[in-house]
Amino acid sequence: MVRRAGLIVNDAKELAVKTAVSVQQKLENSGYEVLRVSSSGGMVGFANPDQHMRPLGYSTCVPEVFNSPIEFAIVLGGDGTVLSAARQTAPANIPILTINTGHLGFLAEAYLSNLEDAIDKLIKGDWEIEERKSLIVSVMRNDQRRWESLCLNEMALHREPLTSMCHFEISIGRHAPVDISADGVILSTPTGSTAYSLSAGGPVITPDCPVVQLTPIAPHSLASRALVFNDSEPVTVFPATPERLIMVVDGNAGCYVWPEDRVLIRKSSHPVKFIRLEEHEFFQVLRNKLGWGLPHVAKPDKE
After folding, report:
1. Contact between residue 133 and residue 142 where contact means Cβ atoms under 8 Å apart
2. Strand pairing report for 253-257 and 135-141
């Protein structure tokens, strides 16, 4: 039986392309058939308001070559590449090993400094899977789906530049609708709680919590603060604003949302499967990447 491995590469980054050559050669020398694709296939992009929107389902980002049985996929790039690769692999239940060739590498499992060791462990099967919850974001008009994408981090719906504050009516599951006046709202997963939501004042949530977070962006009321609720509750956002709004998903997908539209957010049945080569300590990642929990040391006065 042929053993297959996927290789997802950010072709826009020279370092990622260069690294892909050596990774592919190592896998092929170990008996794998390597199926290489560009991470751009998972970047849905932004719908032009003057053109027909993309009504395709979220699973259409999976490359055709990934329809064959694949043991794992290696992702070469930064955090944006990982977010794109999640759309290409999660619907096909393919676990991914993320190797950082970018900057922060918050979602990275391995780095170029330990690349050889990481690939050796992968080939030997010396790894485990950590599942991260994902969301399905759909733009609906009546009963028609106008746009859809898988979301690992967050969905942000906000006003256009130079327009006034927006009003949102938000329905969470069986609960009574709530009204929020703000520049925008963010719906994030626990994975996304360390991204845009954190910058907007939301709390950090550990990845194992089965929740979704709602964070207003620059709210008009002091009472409008982040809300955390069970991820089994579907969310519908109605833009109670006469102007069109901008929706951005994971920073690399999005579209305009018009007053007659609604945004539906629900938990996906396809989690993103991250390969862990060693025990994943989330607090240590927060400490190393964001400086969380570091002791405060007073600086001595200059003479």
Report:
1. no
2. unpaired
Fold classified for 3-133+270-290: Rossmann fold (3.40.50)
Q: Which of 10, 68, 94 is nearest to 275 (CA)?
A: 94
| Choices 2.60.200.30, 3.30.420.10, 3.55.40.20, 3.40.50.150: CATH for 135-267 | 2.60.200.30
Q: Alpha carbon of 23 to those of 28, 73, 74, 115, 241: distances in Å?
A: 9, 11, 9, 9, 50
For every one of its 303 residues, what pLDDT tens digit does the chain have, with 9 covering 90 and above?
A: 789 999 999 999 999 999 999 999 999 999 999 999 999 999 887 877 666 677 778 999 999 999 889 999 999 999 999 999 999 999 999 999 999 997 778 899 999 999 999 999 999 999 999 999 999 999 999 989 999 999 999 999 999 887 888 999 999 999 999 999 999 999 999 999 999 999 999 999 999 999 999 999 999 988 889 999 999 999 999 999 888 999 999 998 999 999 999 999 999 999 999 999 988 889 988 988 888 888 866 666 665
For the chain, what are the domain ranges?
A: 3-133+270-290, 135-267
- 105: alpha, beta or left? (left if phi > 0; alpha if psi -120 to 50): left
Catalytic residue IDs:
79
- Which amino acid, residue 55? P
14-29 and 115-124 helices cross at what angle (nearest 10)?
A: 40
Q: Are 290 and 283 in contact (CB under 8 A)?
A: no
Pure H helices in 6-145: 14-29, 79-89, 115-124
CA distance 70 to 73: 8
**Please, are residues 105 and 112 in contact by the beta-carbon 8 Å criterion?**
no
Please give the Cα distance from 85 to 70 (Å, whole number): 15
Residue at token pair 């956002």: 237
